TrEMBL record:
Lineage of origin: Bacteria, Pseudomonadati, Pseudomonadota, Alphaproteobacteria, Hyphomicrobiales
Designated name of the protein: Methyltransferase domain-containing protein
Alphabetized InterPro entries for the sequence: Methyltransf_25 (IPR041698), SAM-dependent_MTases_sf (IPR029063)
Taxonomic source organism: Devosia insulae DS-56
Residue span(s) of domain Methyltransferase: 12-101
UniProt superkingdom: Bacteria
Pfam families in the cross-refs: Methyltransf_25
Amino acid sequence: MELLAPKAGEAVLEIGCGHGIATGLVLAAGANVVAVDRSAKMVTACIKRNERGGRLTAFESDFETLDLGAFDAALAVNVDFPRHADRGWAKKFSDVIKPGGRVVLVLEAPTIRTADRFAMAAAAALAGAGFRVDTELGQAMVAVRAERVP
């Protein structure tokens, strides 16, 4: 959450919402959240966990195929976009993130090799889609933070 720094009233997209733990933290900051997951079971869990949090829209879908509108920020925890065949995820972020908006991708990485692969591939893809990118390596995790260049 520190890297995303959600603010009250912001529109935040969460990809791979899972059980809704991060969703709840973003909602607690006062942001409006659209949460997406490929699993209907996870979407249900996210909604149930955050039913009193307000300002949440959650649904089952692939992020890359949606017409989502514009967001101030996006978050994905343990969604290894670069590992899979390119479905246009970096371009999709540039389509949905407002100029000056930010993207935070966090991966729990069991090895330094996994962390390095993720960071390099995600940073290159986002930079190629018009983002200014920083990476941060922590203990057993890596984060890629990107800001859409206005």
